[in-house]
């Protein structure tokens, strides 16, 4: 303690902490003064801090209250260390969906939402080239690869559920679905035999859970403390090392083949892994491994959550089981899944963004959000809006089928747009499970195909019931996130 070097170090640290704290206070005051957007909750400096705490467990109620007051407008709610601007109504959500990246940043929105630099690493956080690969190559290959997806679903359900004869067996739904989704997704990401490697799959699931949990914890810290404590919270280094150990040899083998035989060598697999290294500086083991790991995270978390919710709905409304069995290969597996996504959004908010243009961002109603504002669309209240969905709070497995039929009856039979209306693959300003606009989830075609095929397999081959009959397990709330 007497060592002057320690004294200096403590002094510097104290200075940095003090300066950062002053900046946080200044930022907060400035936003109170600048943006002319109504506040839901308290506007007082200290009271709004208290609201920030309430947001952690009451975000869905706060956001719904704001939506009820301003269904076509923007309001803000206090979070612990910043304001959240919540955008409602078709017109304004369209504004975000079409805003240019250098004005309203998707990258910065993701960064804040999952604290990507701390939970996934700086390189992954700043470079999003994998989005295009998912959007183009993976999606285009879906049709050809569907037999693989189906094959993997059959094997994965068999092996993960381990059922014999007609016995009933109890499974915790989310972890079970994570195991299955990880396996099915990796059939297209890395292929056989790695997609069945237990250590590889366990690492991907552990990483997925860690990213979400660490992000939740890190957002509870003031921004200036995050760089100090985040490395103690996130286990990304452990997962990265394990992933390199398992995936490394395969990547090296593929790169060596390419170096020897050229990029189009005969028999070259068409897995995501073989296409995700478009950039020269990414063609080594570490960046490629991290990229595959992060795509796994994006796919496993969302798809297993969606399937779990759909299963909860199916077991709470068993009357859908029979019609689904009867028509499973056609539409019904899709209908119920689509409705389940409407009723059970992953959270109250979607399309997290940050305004990064110095002059701020002007919405079409004239509202200007200053540079540095964090905003998102009110997804759950939109899905529960009676003016958009009749009996919106009710799970109605055939809602979308009816809507499409009505729409078709009222329009030209050959109106090709009808085909795309209200399907699981559609994104729209009033149907936001995948977001909407140019940054809508790049994996949504894959997700919809995978989930529908899984649901079809499940209803055809298994009976399901909940642990307590008639009771749907409540979601876990953490800030705006809702998890089954
Ligand atoms: C039911 C399943 C899924 C849901 C509900 C979902 C939803 C979303 C949403 C809401 C976004 C943000 C959109 C925005 O901010 O505008 C997103 C981004 C993203 N999704 Fe999905 N998604 C699903 C499945 C998948 C799958 C299977 C993949 C991969 C094949 C994937 C890859 C991504 C990626 C890479 C991003 C960009 C953000 C990031 O890099 O973390 N998603 N998804």
Summarize the structure.
Helices cover 57% and strands 7% of the residues.
Kindly describe this structure.
The chain contains 18 helices and 9 strands. The chain has a single domain, classed as Cytochrome P450 (Cytochrome p450, Orthogonal Bundle). β8 (476-478) and β9 form a beta hairpin. α12 (285-316) packs across α18. The strands form 3 sheets. A 5-stranded mixed β-sheet has the order 1-2-7-4-3. The chain has a two-stranded antiparallel sheet with strand order 5-6. The radius of gyration is 24 Å and the shape is globular. With 484 residues, the protein is an alpha+beta fold. The structure holds protoporphyrin IX containing FE. Residues 106, 110, 131, 134, 295, 298-299, 302-303, 306, 346, 350-352, 433-435, 439-444, 446-447 line the site of protoporphyrin IX containing FE (HEM). InterPro entries: Cyt_P450 (IPR001128), Cyt_P450_CS (IPR017972), Cyt_P450_E_grp-I (IPR002401), Cyt_P450_sf (IPR036396). Pfam families: p450 (PF00067).
């Amino acid at each position: 303690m007497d060592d002057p070097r320690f004294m200096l170090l403590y002094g510097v640290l104290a200075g940095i902490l003090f300066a950062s704290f002053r900046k946080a206070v200044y930022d907060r005051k400035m936003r109170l003064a600048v943006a002319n957007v109504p506040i839901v909750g308290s506007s007082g400096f200290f009271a709004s801090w208290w609201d920030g705490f309430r947001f952690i467990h009451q975000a869905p109620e706060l956001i719904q209250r704001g939506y009820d007051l301003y269904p076509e407008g923007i309001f803000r709610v206090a979070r612990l260390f910043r304001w959240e601007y919540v955008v409602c109504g078709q017109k304004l959500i369209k504004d975000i969906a079409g805003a240019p990246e250098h004005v309203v940043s998707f990258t910065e929105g993701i960064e804040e939402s999952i604290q990507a630099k701390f939970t996934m690493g700086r390189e992954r956080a700043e470079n999003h080239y994998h989005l295009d690969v998912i959007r183009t190559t993976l999606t285009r290959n879906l049709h050809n690869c569907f037999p693989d997806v189906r094959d993997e679903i059959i094997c994965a359900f068999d092996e993960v559920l381990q059922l014999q004869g007609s016995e009933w067996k109890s499974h915790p739904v989310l972890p079970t679905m994570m195991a299955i989704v990880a396996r099915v997704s990796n059939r297209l990401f890395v292929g056989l035999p790695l997609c069945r490697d237990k250590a590889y799959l366990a690492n991907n699931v552990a990483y997925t859970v860690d990213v979400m949990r660490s992000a939740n914890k890190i957002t509870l810290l003031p921004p200036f403390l995050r760089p100090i404590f985040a490395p103690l919270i996130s286990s990304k280094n452990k997962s990265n090392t394990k992933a390199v150990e398992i995936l490394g040899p395969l990547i090296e083998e593929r790169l060596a083949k390419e170096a020897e035989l050229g990029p189009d060598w005969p028999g070259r697999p068409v897995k995501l892994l073989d296409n995700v290294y478009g950039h020269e500086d990414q063609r080594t083991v570490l960046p490629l491994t991290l990229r595959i790991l992060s795509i796994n995270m994006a796919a496993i978390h969302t798809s297993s959550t969606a399937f779990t919710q759909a299963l909860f709905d199916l077991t709470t409304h068993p009357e859908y089981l029979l019609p689904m069995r009867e028509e499973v290969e056609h539409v019904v597996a899709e209908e119920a899944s689509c409705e389940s996504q409407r009723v059970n959004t992953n959270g109250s908010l979607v399309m997290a963004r940050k305004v990064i243009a110095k002059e701020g961002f002007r919405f079409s109603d004239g509202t200007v959000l200053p540079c540095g504002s964090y905003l998102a669309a009110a997804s759950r209240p939109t899905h529960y809006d009676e003016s958009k969905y009749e009996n919106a709070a009710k799970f109605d497995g055939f809602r979308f089928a009816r809507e499409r039929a009505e729409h078709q009856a009222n329009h030209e039979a050959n109106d090709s747009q009808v085909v795309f209306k209200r399907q699981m693959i559609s994104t729209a300003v009033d149907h936001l499970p995948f977001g909407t606009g140019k940054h809508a989830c790049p994996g949504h075609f894959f997700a919809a195909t995978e989930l529908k095929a899984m649901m079809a397999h499940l209803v055809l081959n298994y009976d399901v019931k909940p642990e307590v009959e008639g009771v749907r397990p409540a979601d876990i709330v953490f800030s705006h996130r809702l998890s089954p």
